[in-house]
């Protein structure tokens, strides 16, 4: 990629005998939001730490901003912003001081840092809490402050590791709006997440990781079109009314509108182009579920198709 900010080929990371990242290829273009989607332990955070120049690669090649993290780590770190999985704010400083002190680490002038701090407090919707202590802030406020701090040096590349883990829905959506605003301003972002709705909302392009390897790559819409159907019919049965073991597989043969079936411990997923027609066929076939839900296919279904597991496994 001529305008690639990150390029990896055969990238590997081992911890003793355990190989967390097993030879992946990644290209991130300038201005895009790129995602690593997968369950805990998939290798997402290990990959991010190599890109952030805080963990050396074991093997393969890696270029960040046209430089090698192995030899140009300090130069790269000066031009990127990092939002770690866990907030590491200074609890003894105020909200404003967390930004001002961090800005001084980059050698920026006091006047520049003060002006940038005022701008970032407004961006993070924390202007009214500027002189408050950090500890009493809500989880969403702390997360927004961590993101604001990562922007003090006006980075070319922003790395966000599980940015909304532990936040309530309202805080998550506010954070998404802030990240989308950064995208409109041209800030390249790399995000790791195990929330499929987050990946669909934020990412232009993503890779799905499992057990250290990439199992699929594309835009959210491309992946859903490639590996899932337009809709999914979710059925839950009472124990006495549930289909016998192996019987759900016959749905594909018996029901014209069902293309594929997945059996999960608590429900059946029927993949179909028309959920309402499939639901009608299920009723005509004599099955009586406790509940039936028609929804559109998601990246969760893509992951289930590729790995046989759900993202939360």
Automatic annotation (TrEMBL):
The subcellular localization recorded is:
Cell membrane
Q: Which residues form the ABC transporter domain?
A: 6-236
Question: Which Pfam families does the record cross-reference, listed alphabetically?
Answer: ABC_tran
Q: Describe its membrane topology.
A: Peripheral membrane protein
Arranged from A to Z, the UniProt key words for this protein are: Antibiotic resistance, ATP-binding, Nucleotide-binding, Transport
Going by the entry's taxonomy, the superkingdom of the source organism is recorded as Bacteria
Q: What is its main location?
A: membrane
Q: Which Gene3D superfamilies match?
A: P-loop containing nucleotide triphosphate hydrolases
GO molecular function of the protein, one example?
ATP binding
State the family it belongs to. Answer: Belongs to the ABC transporter superfamily.
Give the protein's recorded name: ABC transporter ATP-binding protein
Which organism was this protein described from? Pseudonocardia aurantiaca
